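User: I'm putting together a small comparison set for a docking exercise, and I want a reference complex before I start. The sequence is below, and the ligand is adenosine-5'-diphosphate. Could you produce the 3D structure with the ligand included, as structure tokens?
Assistant: Of course. I'll restate your input first, then give the structure tokens for the complex.
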Amino acid sequence: MSNTTSDDSLITTEVQADSNDDRAAAAAGTAVAARNLNVYYGDEQAIDDVTMEIPEKRVTALIGPSGCGKSTFLRCINRMNDMIEICRVDGDVEFGGKNVYDADVDPVALRRKIGMVFQKPNPFPKSIRDNVAYGLKIQGFDGDVDERVEESLKGAALWDEVKDQLDSSGLELSGGQQQRLCIARAIAPDPEVILMDEPTSALDLIVTHNMQQAARISDQTAVFLTGGELVEYGDTDQVFENPHSERVEDYITGKFG
Ligand SMILES: Nc1ncnc2c1ncn2[C@@H]1O[C@H](COP(=O)(O)OP(=O)(O)O)[C@@H](O)[C@H]1O
Ligand SMILES: [Mg+2]
């Protein structure tokens, strides 16, 4: 494969089982659903009539060439696009069966349930411990904070490197460590959904030449192509090995993108 894109984004919904097979065996309802979703930046359309159900207890990957709308789609789910003035969202995004764009939805409360890890690491200018504990404090967590900090750092494969310097600034870490810190910060409050926007592009522990392989840790893959069109969506093995769409086949085999 000649395709060296790192454009993989992941949506993780309360994954509990340890292997893909265990997860496949578990019955799953719908965590998030987009219905006839259209997104515009001014006159430019970035998402084109996407309808898609994202199951709970699964890892769903979004792949596609740069500019196909992956980040835009992720930001619709926890209403991060609200921050972009020229962005207009049409259609529904349901979370737990409710449209997150309903007038009575508090986007801040929504983002507590739907965490996010961005492409560029963005630790707070705080200690490593306080970065990870940040969401717990907001949430009024009444459990053992140190224990949760340790579990989260272990979950993000960072604990061994930082356990003796929890009071030093998160900003002193390397780029890859900062990204793992942001993953620890996202998982600490135990959100129902985690949106990861190309999280591996900043990870120094992933050394594969073909970042698209990262999508293969997912259970399901959605392929977006230019114009914000959802062209293929199914089990990851099927999408990579036997895509229905010829355009997706071309993309995956590196003919374009
Ligand atoms: N803040 C923004 N303002 C204007 N246009 C944007 C903005 N963010 C993204 N776009 C446009 O929307 C389209 C989709 O972008 P994006 O969601 O970032 O794609 P991807 O994450 O797949 O690279 C692109 O044409 C991009 O230029
Ligand atoms: Mg993007």
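DSSP finds nine helices and ten strands in the chain. The longest helix spans residues 175-187.
User: Thanks, that's exactly what I needed.
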